[in-house]
Amino acid sequence: MSKRDFYDVLGVSKGASSDEIKKGYRKKAKELHPDRNSDNPEAESQFKEANEAYEILKDAEKKAAYDRFGHAAFEGGMGGGGQRPGQGYGGGDFSSAFSDVFDDLFGDFMGGQRGGGGRRAARGADLRYNLRITMEDAYSGLQKTINVPTAVACSDCDGNGAEGGAEPSTCPTCSGMGKVRAQQGFFTVERTCPTCSGLGQIIKNPCKSCGGQGRVERDRALNVNIPAGVETGTRIRLAGEGEAGMRGGPPGDLYIFVEVQAHELFERDGTNLYCRVPVSMSKAALGGAIEVPTIDGGRGRVQIPAGSQSGRQMRLRSKGMPALRGGGTGDMFIELAVETPVNLTSRQKELLKEFEDLSEDNNPESHSFFSSVKSFWDGMKG
Ligand SMILES: [Zn+2]
Ligand SMILES: [Zn+2]
Questions:
Q1: Which ligand sits closest to the CA of 214?
Q2: Which of 9, 25, 183, 375 minimizes the number of CB atoms within 10 Å of its CB?
């Protein structure tokens, strides 16, 4: 099934402001909320969809990525998109990864609905790692070892938090539910159990190495594969490489946020590269071949037609950046910058003077400036 456009999902236009997006989302969320639509699977899936769309569009960075690449921007890079157990609404690949939008909109009110009543505090946090790379690396892709300060499962208690790995016992406060109910006005509100912090279990003798957390802080070296064609804003998800969960809970994910540094020669727009190349006045006038540097470290040859003006664009096919998910390579566009010669020798001056005399005597209208002025005046008269 192809995914719907996120703006359509929220019922707003493409150019909608963040306020309009928020309003659109609130409207949809109210309309489709599971409390109002019990036994309506269609509403439920639209609700998830709206949730997912808002998660992207409310964030300027993610929105920009979406505007540019559409849904492809968020399809799992290398990690693949496994569904995480124990996560109810917002189960889409991406939306569940970041703090759930419902926390800020509905707060505790939603508490009971979301996890299907299960315990959810145990999952490890997602981690973000900012990776700055050069444009050359973005062109070729790279393997890199990164060090991530994270929490890993404690080896002394096998991650369950009890001394010697003993089985934890059921929490007496919540009878293992991880939540307690309280009356608040008309609503029955579910809250995380204060005794077990939502884990549903307590430990009589906490493991000394991890203080009963089941995990310890550690620097982890991770080998990551950055595919060719990434650009600033690309996220790579490494499923299960985030923080270890509390007491044996499932781990979070690691997101690598790529930033590609600006290049001193090339400007990038999607898969195309742009480069300004200085050309001597005589070469621009007479035509000829020039050599230009290319992003792959080599050189390309471009034939300049005689009479080229500054600003003229030439294209070197397939010398741009690779597309992230296959689909070929962009082009490199060269913009000529004709240079006026300086520090002339007296002989050069002589020749240029002679050139100037010839130009004026013979054919003033061949000069593009004169001809454009002439046609401007002709136009005024006509
Ligand atoms: Zn331990
Ligand atoms: Zn409890």
A1: 1
A2: 183
